[in-house]
Specification:
The protein is an alpha+beta fold and about 80 residues long. It contains four helices and three strands, in the order ββαααβα. The mean pLDDT is about 85.
């Protein structure tokens, strides 16, 4: 995918592609009933979430990002 290496960086946050290393944390977030309700989502098992990440990664019509605090990922950002 062309955009799988794309990061959008602001002064306070960074949008990064939804990658395998994010799945466990994302899965924990998506156990929250409020998040499920506001996103119109259904709870998934961790295995289903892994499959979903693969599906979103491989779908040419989707571009899924995770929002990270810039302070938390400063060392992981590509040089400007």
């Amino acid at each position: 995918r062309l955009n799988y290496e794309t990061c959008l960086s602001g002064t306070k946050c960074v949008l990064v592609p939804y990658r395998p290393e994010h799945v466990e944390t994302y899965h924990k977030w998506m156990q929250d009933p409020y998040l499920l309700d506001t996103t119109g989502s259904e709870p998934l098992s961790l295995e289903e979430e892994i499959d979903m990440q693969h599906s979103w990664r491989d779908d040419e019509d989707k571009c899924t990002f995770i929002v990270l605090s810039r302070d938390e990922c400063e060392n992981d950002l590509p040089a400007a």
